[in-house]
Write a structure and sequence with these properties.
By secondary structure, the chain is α+β, with helices and mostly antiparallel strands. It is built from 10 helices and 18 strands. The chain folds into 2 domains: 181 residues, Major capsid protein gp5 (Major capsid protein gp5 fold); 130 residues. The termini are far apart.
């Protein structure tokens, strides 16, 4: 069921994606406004330049691609053309034929990498099962249901991004397609720990961890998030328990005693809890614990460090509100919401057919983070 204004009409078969659907647009905005990643300013449109993402070019941590809404398909392929790395040829030395060896001067072959962002349908429904139900309250059923379903979908779409950092793809994509859950290739740990089991009460989240994050990002040429006005930095999404230990660090207190960074225009930076070594910290309780098989897993949290282009969100269809067809002569007033989308972590794979995977935009840092009030 599609709508325009307040009048509803049925649609069958294919219809133009350019047709204006007032309720779909309104619902899409409601969902977007409720997304944690959107409110924080982490989601933005892809500005192109896909063939040069290995350059020092920075945009949003999560880039949204919408080609599938116009062109169809079940995935968007994100391409990457790597920078040239082979030795230079100097003087009167003749240029040699193509060579794939970076230690040998000559014609260097183009090095293409890519990853897929798959899409899949996600939906849910609710409503009244008795005709007297809307009669007994003053709420318009469609408005009430739209609000509840948009709240639900916003939570699911936020969870999808968090799960993608940990598992490579959205959970609903992994469930319905051949895409496999894969651990993040860039895993680090607090203090002197070398794995999740080894993280103990001394390995907390503090400025030393933030220093290591900054060094890792610089050493690995990770592109920072950058806004049009030149503001830039890296983003650490941490759990409130990790924020608790960070606030116990005197260096953090001295550097951030006046709170948020006034004068910065974008919520990515101005809305942070503070920064250290160019890393801006944001908190949310959605940061995951390790698997239950890990020792003392409930007292550990897996911080996400983001640079530019960390996750690609492919949109196949915006959220839609659909009325149930079978209403038992009007007795049932139920509605569904559905959306077609998928998120993918930027794990680039070489197009030469080998198994090499490279992630140059994000990492996971596991630290000890016990509940301070339990």
């Amino acid at each position: 069921m599609a709508t325009t204004g307040v009048r509803e009409y049925a649609t069958t078969g294919n219809y133009s994606v350019l047709t204006r659907h007032a309720w779909s647009n309104k619902l899409h905005k409601q969902v977007q406004d409720k997304l944690y990643f959107n409110k924080k300013g982490f989601i933005g449109p892809d500005m192109g330049d896909e063939d040069a993402l290995d350059k020092v070019t920075a945009w949003y941590p999560v880039v949204q691609k919408t080609e599938l809404g116009k062109e169809g398909g079940d995935r968007i392929t994100m391409p990457l053309l790597r920078q040239l790395v082979a030795l230079k040829t100097t003087g009167n030395t003749a240029l040699k034929d193509t060579t794939g060896n970076s230690t040998t001067a000559g014609e260097e072959p183009l090095d293409f990498w890519s990853f897929n962002a798959w899409i899949e349908l996600m939906r849910h429904a609710t409503g009244w099962q008795h005709k007297m139900s809307p009669q007994r309250n003053k709420f318009h059923s469609k408005e009430v249901v739209a609000g509840l379903l948009s709240d639900w979908l916003a939570q699911e779409m936020d969870d999808s991004i968090f799960n993608t950092f940990y598992n490579r793809y959205s959970d609903h994509v992994i469930t319905e397609t051949a895409a496999a859950s894969t651990a993040h290739p860039n895993l680090f740990f607090g203090g002197d720990a070398t794995d999740e089991d080894g993280v103990d009460s001394a390995d907390v989240f503090d400025t030393s961890v933030l220093e290591r994050m900054a060094v890792w990002a610089e050493d690995n040429n990770i592109n920072p998030v950058r806004m049009a006005n030149g503001e830039e930095g890296f983003i650490a999404i941490i759990h409130p328990y990790q924020m608790y230990t960070l606030r116990d660090d005197d260096r953090w207190i001295n550097a951030n005693q006046h709170g948020n960074h006034r004068g910065l225009e974008n919520p990515i930076f101005s809305g942070s809890e503070g920064k250290w070594a160019g890393v801006y910290c944001h908190t949310t309780r959605k940061i995951a614990t390790p698997a239950s098989s890990v020792a003392d897993y409930a007292n550990k949290r897996k911080t996400i460090l983001m640079g530019a282009h960390s996750v690609a969100r492919a949109m196949g269809q915006r959220p839609q509100l659909i009325k149930r067809d079978d209403t038992d002569y009007g007795r049932i007033s139920n509605w569904a919401i559905d959306v077609i989308f998928g998120d993918a972590r930027a794990d680039w794979g070489s197009d030469d057919g080998n198994s090499t995977t490279s992630n140059q935009s994000s990492s996971i840092w596991t630290t000890y983070a016990a509940n301070p009030v339990s």
